[in-house]
Amino acid sequence: MVMTVSAEPQPDSRFAASRQHAPIDGASVPALREFWRGLTQPSGLSVAAACVVAAAAFGFCANFVTADWMARHGDLFAWGTDDVHAAVTQKALSLAMPTSGHPRILLLGDLASDVNVSAELASAAVAKAGEQKARMIDLRTPDQTLWETLSIVDQTRRGFEGGAVLVLCHSALEAGPDVLRELDRHPRIGLHSPSVFLELHRAKITSSPLRQNYFVDNHNYLLARAPAAMMNLSSQVTGRTRASAIAGRHTESETRLGGGRRHDSHLDTNLATLDRLVERLQQRQWLRSALVAPPRKAGDDLLRRRLKEIATRRGILLFEATDATSSRLGVLPQAIDAVSGSLREGS
Q1: Residue 315 domain-assigned?
Q2: What is the value of pTM for the model shown?
Q3: 72 or 246: whose pLDDT is higher?
Protein backbone atom coordinates (compact mmCIF):
# COMPACT_ATOMS: atom_id res chain seq x y z
CA MET A 1 0.00 0.00 0.00
CA VAL A 2 1.46 3.26 -1.11
CA MET A 3 0.79 6.35 1.04
CA THR A 4 0.83 9.79 -0.62
CA VAL A 5 1.88 12.70 1.56
CA SER A 6 0.81 16.13 0.34
CA ALA A 7 3.40 18.79 1.03
CA GLU A 8 2.70 22.47 1.76
CA PRO A 9 3.58 24.67 -1.18
CA GLN A 10 6.95 26.30 -0.63
CA PRO A 11 7.37 29.97 -1.20
CA ASP A 12 9.44 31.12 -4.10
CA SER A 13 13.03 31.51 -2.96
CA ARG A 14 13.26 34.84 -4.74
CA PHE A 15 10.84 36.45 -2.28
CA ALA A 16 11.73 34.55 0.83
CA ALA A 17 14.36 36.96 2.02
CA SER A 18 12.21 40.00 1.51
CA ARG A 19 9.33 38.48 3.42
CA GLN A 20 11.61 37.41 6.21
CA HIS A 21 12.93 40.98 6.79
CA ALA A 22 9.75 42.97 6.05
CA PRO A 23 8.50 44.86 9.10
CA ILE A 24 5.15 43.94 10.46
CA ASP A 25 2.27 46.25 9.68
CA GLY A 26 1.94 47.59 13.22
CA ALA A 27 5.55 48.80 13.29
CA SER A 28 5.20 51.04 10.20
CA VAL A 29 2.34 53.12 11.59
CA PRO A 30 4.34 54.93 14.33
CA ALA A 31 7.12 55.69 11.86
CA LEU A 32 4.72 57.31 9.41
CA ARG A 33 3.06 59.17 12.25
CA GLU A 34 6.38 60.59 13.44
CA PHE A 35 7.35 61.57 9.91
CA TRP A 36 4.07 63.45 9.44
CA ARG A 37 4.41 65.14 12.81
CA GLY A 38 7.92 66.36 11.97
CA LEU A 39 6.71 67.57 8.57
CA THR A 40 3.72 69.54 9.84
CA GLN A 41 4.79 70.51 13.36
CA PRO A 42 8.26 72.09 13.42
CA SER A 43 10.13 71.60 16.60
CA GLY A 44 10.77 74.43 18.99
CA LEU A 45 14.48 74.19 18.22
CA SER A 46 13.97 74.77 14.49
CA VAL A 47 11.65 77.71 15.13
CA ALA A 48 14.14 79.24 17.54
CA ALA A 49 16.98 78.76 15.06
CA ALA A 50 14.95 80.44 12.30
CA CYS A 51 14.15 83.39 14.57
CA VAL A 52 17.79 83.79 15.53
CA VAL A 53 18.88 83.80 11.88
CA ALA A 54 16.17 86.32 10.93
CA ALA A 55 17.05 88.59 13.86
CA ALA A 56 20.74 88.42 12.98
CA ALA A 57 20.02 89.30 9.34
CA PHE A 58 17.79 92.20 10.37
CA GLY A 59 20.38 93.49 12.85
CA PHE A 60 23.11 93.28 10.23
CA CYS A 61 21.08 95.21 7.65
CA ALA A 62 19.92 97.82 10.17
CA ASN A 63 23.51 98.55 11.17
CA PHE A 64 25.19 98.07 7.81
CA VAL A 65 22.76 99.61 5.28
CA THR A 66 22.96 103.21 6.50
CA ALA A 67 22.39 106.51 4.71
CA ASP A 68 26.16 107.06 4.43
CA TRP A 69 26.64 103.58 2.98
CA MET A 70 23.82 104.15 0.46
CA ALA A 71 25.38 107.48 -0.55
CA ARG A 72 28.43 105.49 -1.69
CA HIS A 73 26.84 102.23 -2.82
CA GLY A 74 23.22 103.07 -3.60
CA ASP A 75 23.68 101.99 -7.23
CA LEU A 76 23.81 98.43 -5.93
CA PHE A 77 19.99 98.59 -5.76
CA ALA A 78 19.60 99.89 -9.30
CA TRP A 79 17.73 97.84 -11.88
CA GLY A 80 20.08 99.14 -14.54
CA THR A 81 22.27 102.02 -15.61
CA ASP A 82 19.15 103.96 -16.67
CA ASP A 83 17.45 103.60 -13.27
CA VAL A 84 16.95 107.31 -12.55
CA HIS A 85 15.22 106.75 -9.19
CA ALA A 86 18.14 104.77 -7.76
CA ALA A 87 20.56 107.40 -9.07
CA VAL A 88 18.60 110.25 -7.48
CA THR A 89 18.39 108.34 -4.20
CA GLN A 90 22.16 107.97 -4.09
CA LYS A 91 22.88 111.57 -5.12
CA ALA A 92 20.36 112.97 -2.63
CA LEU A 93 21.87 111.00 0.26
CA SER A 94 25.30 112.34 -0.68
CA LEU A 95 24.05 115.90 -0.09
CA ALA A 96 24.53 115.43 3.65
CA MET A 97 28.19 114.47 3.19
CA PRO A 98 30.97 117.08 3.61
CA THR A 99 31.92 118.96 0.43
CA SER A 100 34.73 121.19 -0.78
CA GLY A 101 32.70 124.28 0.07
CA HIS A 102 31.73 125.24 -3.48
CA PRO A 103 28.07 126.22 -3.91
CA ARG A 104 25.73 123.68 -5.45
CA ILE A 105 22.61 124.20 -7.52
CA LEU A 106 20.01 121.48 -7.11
CA LEU A 107 17.76 120.80 -10.09
CA LEU A 108 14.53 119.39 -8.63
CA GLY A 109 11.14 118.29 -9.90
CA ASP A 110 9.90 116.84 -13.14
CA LEU A 111 12.15 115.18 -15.69
CA ALA A 112 9.72 115.86 -18.52
CA SER A 113 10.08 115.36 -22.24
CA ASP A 114 10.23 119.08 -22.92
CA VAL A 115 13.16 119.73 -20.59
CA ASN A 116 15.10 116.46 -20.45
CA VAL A 117 17.38 117.48 -23.32
CA SER A 118 18.53 120.69 -21.64
CA ALA A 119 21.36 119.26 -19.55
CA GLU A 120 24.08 120.83 -21.70
CA LEU A 121 22.33 124.20 -21.74
CA ALA A 122 21.83 124.00 -17.99
CA SER A 123 25.50 123.14 -17.46
CA ALA A 124 26.48 126.12 -19.59
CA ALA A 125 24.30 128.38 -17.46
CA VAL A 126 25.93 127.06 -14.31
CA ALA A 127 29.36 127.66 -15.82
CA LYS A 128 28.55 131.38 -15.83
CA ALA A 129 29.08 131.30 -12.09
CA GLY A 130 32.75 131.28 -13.09
CA GLU A 131 34.96 131.85 -10.08
CA GLN A 132 32.35 130.39 -7.76
CA LYS A 133 32.73 126.98 -9.44
CA ALA A 134 29.08 126.19 -8.78
CA ARG A 135 28.14 122.59 -9.35
CA MET A 136 24.76 121.51 -10.67
CA ILE A 137 23.22 118.32 -9.28
CA ASP A 138 20.31 117.00 -11.33
CA LEU A 139 17.81 115.36 -8.97
CA ARG A 140 14.79 115.31 -11.28
CA THR A 141 12.69 112.21 -11.89
CA PRO A 142 9.73 111.62 -14.22
CA ASP A 143 6.51 112.96 -12.71
CA GLN A 144 8.30 113.82 -9.48
CA THR A 145 5.71 114.62 -6.85
CA LEU A 146 6.01 117.46 -4.34
CA TRP A 147 6.34 114.86 -1.58
CA GLU A 148 9.31 113.25 -3.30
CA THR A 149 10.89 116.69 -3.73
CA LEU A 150 10.37 117.33 -0.02
CA SER A 151 12.16 114.10 0.84
CA ILE A 152 15.11 115.16 -1.33
CA VAL A 153 15.33 118.62 0.26
CA ASP A 154 15.30 117.02 3.72
CA GLN A 155 18.61 115.32 2.93
CA THR A 156 20.49 118.63 2.88
CA ARG A 157 22.11 120.09 5.96
CA ARG A 158 21.01 123.36 7.50
CA GLY A 159 23.11 126.15 6.07
CA PHE A 160 23.48 124.37 2.73
CA GLU A 161 25.43 126.69 0.43
CA GLY A 162 23.76 126.91 -2.91
CA GLY A 163 20.40 127.24 -4.57
CA ALA A 164 17.61 125.24 -6.16
CA VAL A 165 15.53 125.25 -9.31
CA LEU A 166 12.23 123.40 -8.99
CA VAL A 167 10.62 122.26 -12.25
CA LEU A 168 6.88 121.85 -11.67
CA CYS A 169 4.53 119.61 -13.64
CA HIS A 170 0.75 119.38 -13.80
CA SER A 171 0.69 115.81 -12.46
CA ALA A 172 2.42 116.92 -9.26
CA LEU A 173 -0.09 119.73 -8.74
CA GLU A 174 -3.10 117.48 -9.43
CA ALA A 175 -2.09 114.38 -7.44
CA GLY A 176 -4.52 113.24 -4.78
CA PRO A 177 -3.88 111.66 -1.37
CA ASP A 178 -4.11 108.18 -2.90
CA VAL A 179 -0.90 108.96 -4.79
CA LEU A 180 0.78 109.84 -1.51
CA ARG A 181 -0.51 106.59 0.00
CA GLU A 182 0.88 104.64 -2.96
CA LEU A 183 4.27 106.31 -2.59
CA ASP A 184 4.34 105.44 1.10
CA ARG A 185 3.67 101.77 0.39
CA HIS A 186 5.67 101.48 -2.83
CA PRO A 187 8.28 104.28 -2.84
CA ARG A 188 10.11 105.10 -6.04
CA ILE A 189 13.02 106.69 -4.19
CA GLY A 190 14.52 105.58 -0.89
CA LEU A 191 14.26 108.86 1.01
CA HIS A 192 11.60 108.67 3.71
CA SER A 193 11.79 111.94 5.64
CA PRO A 194 10.23 113.89 8.52
CA SER A 195 8.56 116.35 6.14
CA VAL A 196 6.87 113.56 4.20
CA PHE A 197 5.75 111.93 7.45
CA LEU A 198 4.06 115.21 8.42
CA GLU A 199 2.38 115.33 5.01
CA LEU A 200 1.06 111.81 5.56
CA HIS A 201 -0.33 112.93 8.92
CA ARG A 202 -2.00 115.98 7.31
CA ALA A 203 -3.62 113.71 4.72
CA LYS A 204 -4.82 111.38 7.54
CA ILE A 205 -2.84 108.48 6.09
CA THR A 206 -1.60 105.94 8.64
CA SER A 207 2.08 105.20 8.24
CA SER A 208 4.83 103.63 10.30
CA PRO A 209 6.60 106.22 12.48
CA LEU A 210 10.17 107.11 11.62
CA ARG A 211 12.76 105.15 13.60
CA GLN A 212 15.77 107.26 12.61
CA ASN A 213 17.28 104.17 11.02
CA TYR A 214 17.72 104.20 7.26
CA PHE A 215 17.07 100.49 6.70
CA VAL A 216 13.97 100.41 8.90
CA ASP A 217 12.49 103.64 7.51
CA ASN A 218 13.12 102.67 3.88
CA HIS A 219 12.64 98.91 4.00
CA ASN A 220 9.87 99.01 1.36
CA TYR A 221 12.26 100.55 -1.13
CA LEU A 222 15.16 98.24 -0.26
CA LEU A 223 13.20 94.98 -0.13
CA ALA A 224 11.51 95.70 -3.47
CA ARG A 225 14.96 96.09 -5.01
CA ALA A 226 16.59 93.17 -3.21
CA PRO A 227 16.61 91.03 -6.40
CA ALA A 228 18.54 93.76 -8.20
CA ALA A 229 21.01 94.01 -5.33
CA MET A 230 21.59 90.25 -5.35
CA MET A 231 22.15 90.23 -9.10
CA ASN A 232 24.52 93.19 -8.92
CA LEU A 233 26.48 91.55 -6.10
CA SER A 234 26.79 88.33 -8.06
CA SER A 235 27.93 90.26 -11.13
CA GLN A 236 30.78 91.77 -9.10
CA VAL A 237 31.91 88.27 -8.17
CA THR A 238 31.37 86.54 -11.51
CA GLY A 239 31.95 89.47 -13.84
CA ARG A 240 28.58 89.00 -15.52
CA THR A 241 26.26 91.78 -16.64
CA ARG A 242 24.60 93.75 -13.87
CA ALA A 243 20.87 93.87 -13.30
CA SER A 244 20.31 95.90 -16.47
CA ALA A 245 19.15 92.67 -18.09
CA ILE A 246 15.94 92.85 -16.06
CA ALA A 247 15.67 96.62 -15.85
CA GLY A 248 12.86 96.89 -18.36
CA ARG A 249 10.45 94.97 -16.14
CA HIS A 250 10.83 97.37 -13.22
CA THR A 251 12.08 100.84 -14.15
CA GLU A 252 9.29 101.36 -16.67
CA SER A 253 6.66 100.62 -14.01
CA GLU A 254 8.38 103.01 -11.61
CA THR A 255 8.70 105.84 -14.11
CA ARG A 256 5.08 106.95 -13.96
CA LEU A 257 2.66 106.48 -11.10
CA GLY A 258 -0.25 104.48 -12.41
CA GLY A 259 -2.96 104.12 -9.77
CA GLY A 260 -3.24 107.59 -8.29
CA ARG A 261 -6.10 109.88 -9.24
CA ARG A 262 -5.28 113.39 -10.42
CA HIS A 263 -7.81 116.19 -10.56
CA ASP A 264 -7.95 119.95 -10.32
CA SER A 265 -9.84 119.58 -7.04
CA HIS A 266 -6.52 118.77 -5.36
CA LEU A 267 -4.93 122.02 -6.54
CA ASP A 268 -5.45 123.97 -3.30
CA THR A 269 -4.00 121.16 -1.18
CA ASN A 270 -0.99 120.75 -3.44
CA LEU A 271 -0.29 124.47 -3.63
CA ALA A 272 -0.27 124.50 0.17
CA THR A 273 2.25 121.65 0.03
CA LEU A 274 4.30 123.64 -2.48
CA ASP A 275 4.26 126.63 -0.14
CA ARG A 276 5.58 124.44 2.68
CA LEU A 277 8.23 123.07 0.32
CA VAL A 278 9.45 126.56 -0.51
CA GLU A 279 9.42 127.39 3.20
CA ARG A 280 11.54 124.30 3.78
CA LEU A 281 14.05 125.60 1.26
CA GLN A 282 14.21 128.89 3.11
CA GLN A 283 14.68 127.12 6.45
CA ARG A 284 17.82 125.62 4.95
CA GLN A 285 19.03 129.22 4.42
CA TRP A 286 19.70 128.68 0.74
CA LEU A 287 20.90 131.74 -1.13
CA ARG A 288 18.37 131.65 -3.97
CA SER A 289 15.61 129.41 -5.32
CA ALA A 290 13.48 129.50 -8.44
CA LEU A 291 10.31 127.87 -9.73
CA VAL A 292 9.75 126.78 -13.32
CA ALA A 293 6.00 126.68 -14.00
CA PRO A 294 4.44 123.73 -15.85
CA PRO A 295 3.57 124.12 -19.54
CA ARG A 296 0.54 126.26 -20.18
CA LYS A 297 -2.81 124.63 -20.85
CA ALA A 298 -6.34 125.87 -21.25
CA GLY A 299 -8.03 127.04 -18.08
CA ASP A 300 -4.94 127.23 -15.86
CA ASP A 301 -5.15 130.98 -15.15
CA LEU A 302 -5.91 130.28 -11.49
CA LEU A 303 -2.80 128.13 -11.22
CA ARG A 304 -0.63 130.88 -12.74
CA ARG A 305 -2.03 133.47 -10.36
CA ARG A 306 -1.50 131.24 -7.30
CA LEU A 307 2.08 130.43 -8.31
CA LYS A 308 2.86 134.14 -8.61
CA GLU A 309 1.37 134.72 -5.16
CA ILE A 310 3.62 132.04 -3.63
CA ALA A 311 6.69 133.37 -5.42
CA THR A 312 5.98 136.94 -4.28
CA ARG A 313 5.21 135.99 -0.69
CA ARG A 314 8.26 133.76 -0.36
CA GLY A 315 10.61 135.99 -2.32
CA ILE A 316 11.64 133.43 -4.94
CA LEU A 317 11.92 133.66 -8.72
CA LEU A 318 9.22 132.32 -11.05
CA PHE A 319 9.84 131.43 -14.70
CA GLU A 320 7.20 130.31 -17.16
CA ALA A 321 6.77 129.86 -20.89
CA THR A 322 5.12 132.80 -22.63
CA ASP A 323 2.42 130.80 -24.41
CA ALA A 324 0.88 127.35 -24.65
CA THR A 325 3.12 126.22 -27.51
CA SER A 326 6.42 127.29 -25.94
CA SER A 327 8.65 124.65 -24.46
CA ARG A 328 10.31 124.97 -21.08
CA LEU A 329 13.59 124.11 -22.80
CA GLY A 330 14.53 127.77 -23.02
CA VAL A 331 13.05 128.74 -19.64
CA LEU A 332 15.02 126.25 -17.54
CA PRO A 333 18.51 127.60 -18.42
CA GLN A 334 17.23 131.11 -17.67
CA ALA A 335 16.18 129.97 -14.19
CA ILE A 336 19.52 128.29 -13.57
CA ASP A 337 21.39 131.35 -14.84
CA ALA A 338 19.43 133.58 -12.43
CA VAL A 339 20.20 131.31 -9.46
CA SER A 340 23.87 131.12 -10.49
CA GLY A 341 24.02 134.89 -10.70
CA SER A 342 22.60 135.23 -7.21
CA LEU A 343 25.35 132.94 -5.93
CA ARG A 344 27.95 135.33 -7.35
CA GLU A 345 26.26 138.34 -5.84
CA GLY A 346 25.83 136.70 -2.46
CA SER A 347 29.46 135.66 -2.15
Answers
A1: yes
A2: 0.79
A3: 72
